[in-house]
């Protein structure tokens, strides 16, 4: 999956914004809360995203995944190469991360953004 494909996918989610942070990371956010980070200056392209506590343990031991630096305590994983996954699987992880982060927003903010979480 290319960065452009991830952008197109994430832009479909309600209330999503994107920005460059830390000079070289493309961050996808909902209400200023990051749910997916893509390393733009890395080859192959890497990504980090939030997962459920159950998935965190399983994914952390899966080849190509590791606990995300600085964010592992919040159940984030880092994927070494976004192209190592089928596009459908990457799409599932992006959607799940979005739902986890959006679901933690205050109800008022969710309503403002028209979120159905």
TrEMBL record:
Gene3D superfamilies membership: 3.90.1150.30
InterPro entries: YjbR (IPR007351), YjbR-like_sf (IPR038056), YjbR/MT2646/Rv2570-like (IPR058532)
Classification via Pfam families: YjbR
Listed name of the protein: MmcQ/YjbR family DNA-binding protein
Organism of this sequence: Pontibacter oryzae
